[in-house]
Fold:
Amino acid sequence: MSNISIAQFHKVFFEESLEGLDAMEAALLALDEGGDAELVHSIFRAAHSIKGGSATFGFPDMAALTHEAESLLDQVRDGRRAIDKSIIELMLRTVDCLRGMFDRAQSGQPLANGESESLKQQLAAAVGHAGPTATKVAAKPAAASGWIIQFRPHAGMLAGGNDPLRLLRELAALGQLVVEAQLDRVPTLDALDPTECHLGWRIELTGSVSREAIAGVFEWVEDECDLSIEPLVAAAPPPAPAVEAVSAPAGAGGAAGTTRSAAASSNDAGSVRVGIDKIDGLIDLVGELVITQAMLDQFREEFDPSRLAMLQQGLAQLARHTRTLQESVMGIRMLPIGSVFNRFPRLVRDLSQKLGKQVKLELVGEHTELDKTVLEKIGDPLVHLVRNAIDHGLETPEKRRATGKGDIGTLRLEAFHRGGSIVVEIVDDGAGLNREAIIAKALQKGLIKSGEGISDDEVGELIFQPGFSTAAVTTDLSGRGVGMDVVRRNVVDLGGTVAIKTRPGNGTTFTITLPLTLAIIDGLRAAVGDECYIVPLVSIVESIQLPAEAIRSVTGGGELFRFRGEYRPIVRLHQQFGCTNARQNIEDGLVIVVEADGNQVGLFVDELIGQQQAVVKSLEANYRRVDGISGATILADGSVALIIDIAGLIRLQSRRKAA
Structure:
């Protein structure tokens, strides 16, 4: 098989192996909680698949590490060893190490490093034998221990999907090989059946390797071959070229760097697994569109006013099918948030052990779906919030008992749909925000002039200020003043919002509201002079008409209006974006009250045209970045409407006020 053809399968191998690692981690965590022995079998199967794939696709370092892990699991599976905390911890570290090796494989870097080599030796020591010998022999001993392996596959082995070359690569991960092909069963060319295996091999394996380890390589094909494994009494060291030929077969070894680079570049595009039912639905919709198009084509060839009702019916069908097609295509990009939630059991376990806390993690709504792009970017903000909840929110068992609580704190991650958005809540039953400490820190940093009259919501907003932290001691978990401002910025970049509610002594709730997709948004179309703007519906609080006397002018030319007991600034969009022929008097237009980052402003526009879905086009990619604008869309008449960036507009307003 050529390098290029192997590289075509790397991406699938990486994806499936990473899923296997996720399954291994979940099963190990379940074992840690007292799960049954069947979990060990699922962990072993995942490790065995990764080992076999690594050897097949030319990643011997990964295969060697996984082989040692598999050998340890085999001892547990056979009852020769009892599972305990130390083994679980060692296997969890192996999962982490393998994830790092996969990352390096996708970027074309060397897989092995000091961590992986050390871990391989620890696994080998746990199994009870020394680690595998290096790929190349540093010195030439007069004799070496090893094995003679006679391996003759049955003719039908290939039909069963088993590849003898993969088995040779797995053996190469155990030690030094000299391989001699046996050709006595190869028929003449006219009698050759390419679907059958006609070769056999005599293999010398040199190194301190157990017979069980070799038998494990052939475990899945033991009924499809003739196999003998005998001790090697004395043998000269294998010549280097022969080792290289086996360790680096076609598509691996020396060409591994090229192959991995190809895999890395192909992985940049990303992929989404789509259920066959969704594909079938799209095919059906395309069929309906073809039928509707044929109906409308009749009117293009010859228009008859008497058939106007049929034309209207065809256009209505076209609109209906187009909307359904849009929803189906968007559904292909929708993935369950469970793929993000699944990383947190391990994170919570490690952090709670490190901090001496007992934490019960509850995951709710894992099947709630959102756009793949949003899903990829929401992981880091959630990690910040979970770490913050465990470090700052939840108390130690001693402190919880002192306040009448149980020893175990509860942390709940919940996802659900609300309207056209997805909501993710991070809820803990800890101590809540320390109001006094937050106000004292805000006074020290000059963020507020006085702590009098500040509401709990306003106190909560202070923790989102850049560089804000109340931690007395800087640790690797908290106290560096980065985190909460990063959370808000990342969520806002996704077109979402973050809100906080705290109950002193009873916990805190962070609520993240996100759009279902970044490709299409619901918005209100607003006219401003000769221009048209889209205001995202998720940011709109209310639209009101104000009399002239409701406006208060402030020093510096700003304007305020009273809304629900509070004064809010007004942003005149025609001044902000230089629109001509716009209405000037406040009573002649409308004020759209919008909210982002916990702040509200009123956008003054001429009038509202109506609600519409906007297909978002990047303004930065097609023109340049414009402050206060997040993108553009093309309207039905072919004109362009700009989409307002509410958070950016509020930041512009704040900078002007500060100046």
In short: The domain at 520-658 is CATH 2.40.50.180 (OB fold (Dihydrolipoamide Acetyltransferase, E2P)). The CA atoms of residues 11 and 269 lie 11 Å apart. The chain has a mean pLDDT of 80.
